[in-house]
Design goal:
single chain, alpha/beta, Rossmann fold, UDP-galactose 4-epimerase, domain 1, seven-stranded parallel sheet, three-stranded mixed sheet, 9 helices, 14 strands
Length: 289
């Protein structure tokens, strides 16, 4: 039985990945900053409270679990907030990853590292969909931290990089755009106002269930040292998505642009070229198809 450690297991994706791995007979362990595990976690062998920026805590977890594979989900995940606190973003994403690698070296072990990076590293590209060979063009502190994180992981050697495009599903925090839309629609009455940021950008949103399945298959079939995009290959504007969600709700709303929700830098279009994962037999559906 493969022993897997999921960092950041209490986050949005963690419970979904746990269910996917447990369902395929992995022995799953997890760590997150919180004292206790998420109540939605089922089937994990053990849980550790761990600050990824603390080397000794990270080393303790790795020494206790001795995983065959690490799915590194833990991190600073908000693009918008990374502009407000870039130092913290880099400390968590870059130093946290470095702590994993340094712990591995000190313990003289060599687990496979599946680093969950982000399509944000591509920034604005001249051509979409974007493939793995495109030059990175990070436009935010978050994206820059992910580029540095990837470099550290690839230098380790026994690693695979996954560049995840946007994904959503139940229990995603309201600070993300789709849950924010959903909450305002659910709580609002017809004729009321929905406040939005820039809804003319195009994004590729996948179902998180498909995404974690892709993570597992890439772990099992992917090539060490390679980079894999994970996304549906279909992009829609946020305006189209919001109008579709409003129509499906049976309500009507006035859409008002709130400039406070604008990012200082935004990517106009970001759509996944998923041909590489398709060759592994992975199919990812767009959440809004």
């Amino acid at each position: 039985m493969v022993k897997a450690l999921i960092t950041g297991i209490n986050g949005f994706v963690g419970p979904y990945l746990t269910k996917e791995l447990v369902g395929h007979k992995y022995s799953v362990f997890g760590c997150s900053l919180e004292k206790k595990p998420n109540i939605s976690l089922e089937g994990i062998k053990d849980y550790f409270s761990c600050d990824m920026t603390d080397f000794l805590q990270v080393k303790f977890v790795l020494n206790s679990v001795k995983p065959d594979v690490i799915f590194h989900l833990a991190g600073f995940s908000s693009v918008g907030k990374s502009f407000e606190n870039p130092e913290l973003c880099f400390k968590i994403n870059v130093d946290g990853t470095r702590n994993i690698i340094n712990s591995i070296k000190e313990l003289k072990v060599s687990p496979k590292l599946i680093l969950i990076s982000s399509a944000e590293v591509y920034g604005q590209q001249k051509k979409n969909p974007v493939g793995e060979t495109a030059l990175v063009n990070p436009l935010s502190p978050y994206a820059k931290s992910k580029v540095d994180q990837e470099k550290i992981a690839l230098e380790y050697g026994n690693s695979i990089i996954i560049r995840a495009f946007n994904h959503t599903g139940l229990n995603q925090p309201d600070m993300f755009v789709i849950p924010s839309f959903r909450k305002q629609i659910r709580e609002g009455v017809s004729g009321s106002t929905i406040f939005v940021g820039n809804i003319d950008v195009v994004r590729d949103f996948s179902n998180v269930v498909d995404v974690v399945r892709a993570y597992r298959i890439i772990c099992e079939k992917g090539v060490i040292g390679e980079i894999y995009n994970v996304g549906s290959g279909r992009g829609y504007s946020l305006r189209y998505i919001l109008n579709k969600m409003i129509k499906d709700s049976g309500k009507s709303f006035q859409i008002v642009v709130d400039t406070k929700k604008y990012r200082s830098v935004d990517i106009k279009e970001l759509v996944c070229d998923n041909s590489k994962i398709n060759k592994l037999g992975i199919q990812v559906k767009n959440y809004f198809d």
